């Protein structure tokens, strides 16, 4: 691949247009993924641009389009459940995939951490945002609306616009986990979710009640405060086992809660998996490194995050292009839910 030598003039959009035999407008549309450009012409323009070592002038683009060329990734979910002490959980996996997809479409991604107070999305110069698993009346969504900024959500929002959301299939995830626990011999599985109205919690509770009614067991469900992290999961599971000793399995939707639940089970003399089957939702670092490893679900977060970026940018650019749906959730069975 040819590249500009040190000291040589940087190739311009006019150079690319001349080499490709097209207009500068066509080059601009081809490189920015806008307008109606024949796919073969678009590929040729990009090939020529790469050969010449052409790089767009981002400052000029921002001035011309009146955009920051920057997106935000934001969530109201506290790090105690979204990331944990390592900061390498659910939220950061989404961030890495979203940043990669944004760059391929000419945008930078700013990570707006979930903080209790202080500056948030209102303090950054952005063109739009992806909101991760919003609440029904989510403060991040509210701020974006006040600023008149477009947004897409990773995970549906209760009462929100489903056309602006990438579905994470909360009900299907809960059914997968409960079906697995029942297949492993559980007769009285219990459910632990976070408090609040995130769609994943709402859908899981509805799915749990439906499965309990269909299969004829008494439902036992507890909602724990998200900010409590692993300790909240410990407290919820300890309470379950004290008040409902017949419970033989726990589906702890948040992985931090599942880690706490495993500790509570051990302290109650019912270690996982021989004394209590345990499963969680997110197949992340906590699930993989816990001892025993936790049964979980592959949510295809990379594909889902990329789809959320595409959805947001299509809305921002006024395009009506279809967005690829991420694969359906897949169970990852591990030792925490298999006795013997």
From TrEMBL:
Segments forming domain HTH lacI-type: 11-65
Keywords (A to Z) from UniProt: DNA-binding, Repressor, Transcription, Transcription regulation
Pfam hit, one: Peripla_BP_3
GO molecular function terms listed in the Swiss-Prot or TrEMBL record: DNA-binding transcription factor activity; transcription cis-regulatory region binding
Gene3D superfamilies xrefs: 3.40.50.2300, lambda repressor-like DNA-binding domains
Protein name: DNA-binding LacI/PurR family transcriptional regulator
Organism of derivation: Nocardiopsis composta
């Amino acid at each position: 691949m040819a590249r500009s030598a040190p000291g040589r003039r940087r190739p311009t959009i006019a150079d690319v247009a001349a080499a490709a035999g097209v207009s500068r407008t066509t080059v601009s549309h081809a490189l920015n993924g806008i307008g109606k450009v024949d796919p073969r012409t678009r590929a040729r323009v990009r090939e020529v641009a790469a050969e010449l070592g052409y790089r767009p002038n981002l400052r000029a683009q921002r001035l011309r389009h009146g955009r920051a060329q920057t997106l935000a990734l934001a969530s109201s979910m506290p790090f105690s459940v979204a990331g944990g002490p390592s900061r390498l959980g659910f939220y950061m996996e989404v961030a890495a995939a979203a940043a990669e997809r944004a760059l391929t479409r000419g945008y930078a991604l700013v990570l707006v951490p979930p903080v209790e107070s202080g500056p948030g999305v209102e303090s950054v110069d952005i063109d739009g945002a992806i909101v991760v698993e919003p609440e029904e009346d989510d403060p991040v969504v509210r701020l974006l609306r006040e600023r008149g900024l477009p947004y897409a959500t990773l995970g549906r929002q209760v009462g929100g616009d489903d056309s602006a959301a990438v579905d994470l299939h909360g009900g299907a995830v809960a059914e997968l986990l409960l079906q697995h626990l029942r297949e492993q011999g559980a007769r009285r599985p219990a459910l632990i979710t976070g408090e609040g109205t995130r769609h994943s919690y709402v859908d899981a509770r509805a799915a749990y009640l439906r499965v309990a009614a269909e299969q004829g067991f008494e439902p036992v469900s507890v909602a724990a405060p998200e900010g409590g992290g692993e300790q909240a999961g410990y407290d919820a599971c300890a309470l379950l086992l004290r008040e409902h000793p017949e419970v033989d399995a726990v589906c702890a939707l948040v992985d931090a809660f599942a880690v706490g639940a495993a500790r509570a089970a051990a302290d109650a003399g019912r270690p996982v998996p021989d004394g209590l089957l345990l499963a969680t939702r997110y197949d992340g670092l906590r699930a993989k490194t816990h001892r025993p490893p936790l049964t979980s679900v592959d949510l295809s977060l990379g594909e889902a995050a990329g789809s959320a970026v595409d959805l947001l940018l299509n809305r921002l650019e006024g395009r009506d292009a279809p967005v690829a749906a991420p694969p359906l959730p897949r169970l990852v069975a591990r030792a925490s839910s298999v006795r013997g």
